[in-house]
Write a structure and sequence with these properties.
The protein has 1 helix and 5 strands. It is mostly beta strands. The longest helix has 6 residues.
Length: about 80
């Protein structure tokens, strides 16, 4: 696998009709997971993976494998639903 550092990865939010509502770019490939956090659940954490990256790619783009935080306007997560045992 190879990638161009000039083309960052994106996390996308889709509308119910399937069109893209917004995109958030991160400076690394291989977006793996998104999760909301913070006291108001308005911080979006985006993780990326280093798996299958060559030593040259890792050297050229040290951001690979990072965790990124965004605060998208008008979007927040939902609190966990707790279940009784």
């Amino acid at each position: 696998m190879s990638f161009s550092p000039a083309a960052p990865s994106v996390a996308r939010r889709f509308r119910p009709d399937g069109t893209i509502e917004r995109e958030i770019s991160v400076p690394a490939p291989n977006v793996t997971c998104l999760a909301f956090g913070g006291p108001d659940l308005n911080e979006l954490y985006i993780t990326t993976a280093r798996q299958d990256m060559s030593p040259a790619e890792l050297e050229r783009v040290p951001e690979i494998g990072g965790v990124y935080r965004a605060t998208p306007v008008g979007v927040r997560g939902l609190p966990d639903t707790l279940f009784a045992d």
